[in-house]
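Entry type: protein chain
Record version: 2
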Amino acid sequence: MVVDPEPPSGTTPIAASEQRTGDATRGREYLLYGDYVDSGIPYDLYLQTVGSGNNLLERDGDNEAIPYNFTAVDAPNGVRVVAANCLQCHAQELNGELVIGLGNSFADFTENQASVVPLVDLAVTLRYGNNSPEWDAYVPFRRAALVTGPEIQTEVRGTNSAGKVAVVLTAHRNPIDLTWSDDPVYPIPSGVVPEDVPAWWHTKKKNALYFNASGKGDFARLIMASSSLTMQDSAKAREVDENFDDVLAFLKSIEPPAYPEAIDETLLEAGADIFAAECAECHGTYGADPTYPNLLVSLDRIKTDSLLVYSNFASGGFENWYTGSWFSNAPYAASFTPERGYIAPPLDGIWATAPYLHNGSVPTLEDLLNTSQRPTYWKRSFISTDLDYEKVGWNYSAESSGNGSEIYDTTLPGYHNTGHSFGDGLSEDERSALIEYLKTL
């Protein structure tokens, strides 16, 4: 009998759950063309006021003229609208090329996103009237923007508040039939905790989703939550749910981009040995026969900023709402059971996923592996080609203070760059070798 080894001290294995299978090709099509979000600005008004965008996805039809992170769809009443899609957060240009599945670390949520609603209201009213089908097609998006905008502002550009978005949107929905409620059905917690968006290509390895392993059960149902932005009711939810097994299959099919620069083969060999000795027990092994242990690392061991663990999905109102909601219905039930720690993530494509830690507080791998040189305040250009291939991450400048939303301020609550000090015991040469190996994952 083979006995599983004891997990490393301070870690707990995360159990797997059965997942639906689907068609990755159909999933990609639905992700890029589907109406899982079906309310927005009327199509012709969007083209007139915003204009066309670069067709980075090489889509056809009406979608040829709009940016990759929006989709032209028919609202329930038949009006053609431009709606947000999942690539708002889950795609980013890197080295000038759009990478689907790479978390968007360029987005700016430091302003109230609802501030543009009065201007859009005026434009829709002047063009169509506020009793028109076009106004009705716009309303679900409008009301979602009004309630989320004031609640999701981050302090620093490049960080994300997706967890808080989910909390706000569910608070405005009846848990049984998912119809909209103007008044929150449970208290919305205060504060916004920053997150870095995980890469989609890690999904295939995980037994639970989100940084603190809170998302369990059916992954397809968990990831379809973006549709709650505008869905009318549970009938629409069932329609979306029938397509998201295919979307999940697509997410699992994505592979990370290969490191584009030359690799030092001598350093690589030494780095592989260091990784096996120092990192693999939590982050898994790579190559022809990879393994991944799916471990939750306790806060006492990881010592990274803990605020995310105690916010958003850990709020009693959200957890209770989800447990009693349509999303928890069999046979494809999902659940949220927040844990007191963080998942040790897969490291596939780690070179492309800067900045690092769950809150994006560390700009490069070299800084991640040497806590003494992590900058307290740092600034980057948000240009997709401005990469540091030696330290591996973004080129940045250390600043003297956190003045302004373009500067990452690690003294703010939730933005701390502490913890994950496991590389501090390495020599400079060992650290360089390890980084060389990490480039190849």
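Comment: DSSP finds 13 helices and 15 strands in the chain.
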